[in-house]
């Protein structure tokens, strides 16, 4: 597809993208939208999301129109929610279907999350081809449902068990895909108010923050600063850390709820300590930042599966959540920060394992499903 649909006698390609909740769902959607637009300049893009998820802010900020679909949590217990479920699901499907029809969508691309199931069901009844992208090693409920309706199923990881799955990797936003860490570092240090020439630690619990990491680093902040380590800690909205603002060594502890310039946070980091959401793991590997992963201890260890390949390749370490406290930071994290050789070899292993161009492979799949390959 050249992008000049009119010259080829076709109407411009129309794509509806559906997904939301955490940034882990929204960012691959935005990366795919940007990549589609650069490959097919006259593409029409619409996004389906919920009012409650991060997409409500991030999608319009990126310049894409967002249609709100009511959130339909799948009832896990037979209470009043379960009784209302069929009615709210039908309302959500009708809203999704109206948007798909109004936009004359050639293809619906779903990224999981609350909005994806109604979008898949609406696309199916409207006879519109479906493409699915699953970010995590272990697939979510919506994508397991959607995978029954299509042969175009893309995953981030080889190990993911979904019918008809093809591994494409995780689409990264252009500012991360194209990041030159060394070139961006001075801007990053200035942006966050940090100094050149100090070991720099980035702490974050995905896009939502992690109380466990916040508590452990509050406890250990004094020791990190005393060792001359400076810290950028993204705590998550509504979550706080109590940390010293000054130190005898002059090293600073900068805490913020969330940054829209994550590429700059990666550019300043010599080491990250973080959860193991798919976005976190794939972005850190792609830009070659070594990390200590503390997977969220829910379900059957899903987040550990996201990080295991990278950890086995030497690009990171992994610790269980219940070991993490101030003493753990002093024993496991601080020694790494004062070992530049070890950090350099972990960084090289991460970069060799990571990949930057999953967006191209997913866009190929979308164009093929829309009959525009
Ligand atoms: C899709 C998915 O599996 N979501 C899960 C993931 O969400 P979460 O959103 O944390 O998932 P990811 O690790 O996949 O992605 C985090 C994303 O947030 C961005 N970022 C983060 C901080 C910041 O200040 N600015 C910023 O832009 C990162 O660049 C990255 O793109 O882990 C959470 C717990 O750990 C779970 O509750 C979520 O259900």
UniProtKB/TrEMBL annotation:
GO terms for cellular component: plasma membrane. Residues 15-154 form the Glycosyltransferase family 28 N-terminal domain. InterPro entries: GlcNAc_MurG (IPR006009), Glyco_trans_28_C (IPR007235), GlycoTrans_28_N (IPR004276). It is an enzyme of class 2 (transferase). Keywords: Cell cycle, Cell division, Cell membrane, Cell shape, Cell wall biogenesis/degradation, Glycosyltransferase, Membrane, Peptidoglycan synthesis, Transferase. One of its GO terms (molecular function) is UDP-N-acetyl-D-glucosamine:N-acetylmuramoyl-L-alanyl-D-glutamyl-meso-2,6-diaminopimelyl-D-alanyl-D-alanine-diphosphoundecaprenol 4-beta-N-acetylglucosaminlytransferase activity. UDP-N-acetyl-alpha-D-glucosamine binds at residues 22-24, 136, 173, 207, 303. It is found in: Cell membrane. One of its GO terms (biological process) is cell wall organization. Its EC number is 2.4.1.227. Pfam families: Glyco_tran_28_C, Glyco_transf_28. SUPFAM superfamilies: UDP-Glycosyltransferase/glycogen phosphorylase. It catalyses: di-trans,octa-cis-undecaprenyl diphospho-N-acetyl-alpha-D-muramoyl-L-alanyl-D-glutamyl-meso-2,6-diaminopimeloyl-D-alanyl-D-alanine + UDP-N-acetyl-alpha-D-glucosamine = di-trans,octa-cis-undecaprenyl diphospho-[N-acetyl-alpha-D-glucosaminyl-(1->4)]-N-acetyl-alpha-D-muramoyl-L-alanyl-D-glutamyl-meso-2,6-diaminopimeloyl-D-alanyl-D-alanine + UDP + H(+). It is a peripheral membrane protein. Residues 200-361 form the Glycosyl transferase family 28 C-terminal domain. Cell wall formation. Catalyzes the transfer of a GlcNAc subunit on undecaprenyl-pyrophosphoryl-MurNAc-pentapeptide (lipid intermediate I) to form undecaprenyl-pyrophosphoryl-MurNAc-(pentapeptide)GlcNAc (lipid intermediate II). Belongs to the glycosyltransferase 28 family. MurG subfamily. This is UDP-N-acetylglucosamine--N-acetylmuramyl-(pentapeptide) pyrophosphoryl-undecaprenol N-acetylglucosamine transferase.
């Amino acid at each position: 597809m050249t992008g000049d649909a009119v010259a080829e006698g076709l109407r411009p390609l129309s794509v509806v993208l559906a997904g939301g909740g955490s940034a882990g769902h929204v960012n691959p959607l935005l990366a795919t939208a940007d990549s589609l637009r650069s490959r097919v300049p006259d593409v029409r893009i619409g996004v389906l999301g919920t009012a409650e998820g991060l997409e409500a802010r991030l999608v319009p900020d990126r310049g894409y129109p967002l249609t709100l679909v009511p959130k339909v949590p799948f009832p896990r217990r037979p209470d009043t929610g379960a009784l209302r479920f069929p009615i709210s699901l039908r309302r959500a499907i009708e809203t999704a279907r109206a948007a798909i029809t109004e936009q004359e969508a050639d293809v619906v691309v779903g990224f999981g999350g609350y909005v994806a199931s109604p979008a898949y069901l609406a696309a199916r009844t409207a006879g519109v081809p479906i493409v699915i992208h699953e970010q995590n090693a272990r697939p979510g409920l919506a994508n397991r449902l959607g995978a029954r309706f299509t042969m175009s199923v893309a995953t981030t990881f080889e190990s993911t068990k979904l019918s008809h799955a093809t591994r494409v990797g995780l689409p990264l936003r252009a500012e991360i895909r194209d990041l030159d860490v060394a070139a961006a570092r001075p801007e990053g240090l200035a942006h966050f108010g940090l100094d050149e020439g100090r070991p720099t630690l980035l702490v974050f619990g995905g896009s939502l923050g992690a109380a466990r990491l916040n508590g452990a680093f509050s406890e250990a902040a004094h020791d990190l600063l005393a060792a001359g380590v400076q810290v950028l800690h993204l705590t998550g909205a509504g979550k706080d850390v109590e940390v010293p603002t000054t130190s005898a060594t002059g090293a600073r502890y900068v805490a913020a709820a969330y940054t829209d310039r994550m590429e700059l946070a990666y550019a300043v980091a010599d080491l990250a300590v973080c959860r193991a959401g798919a976005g976190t793991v794939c972005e850190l590997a792609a830009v070659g930042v070594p990390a200590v992963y503390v997977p969220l201890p829910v379900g059957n260890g899903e987040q550990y599966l996201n990080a295991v390949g990278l950890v086995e390749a030497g690009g990171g370490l992994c610790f269980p959540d219940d070991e993490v406290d101030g003493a753990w930071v002093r024993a496991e994290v601080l020694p790494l920060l004062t070992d530049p050789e070890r950090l350099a070899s972990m960084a090289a292993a991460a970069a060799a394992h990571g990949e930057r161009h999953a967006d191209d492979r997913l866009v190929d799949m979308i164009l093929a499903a829309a009959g525009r390959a």
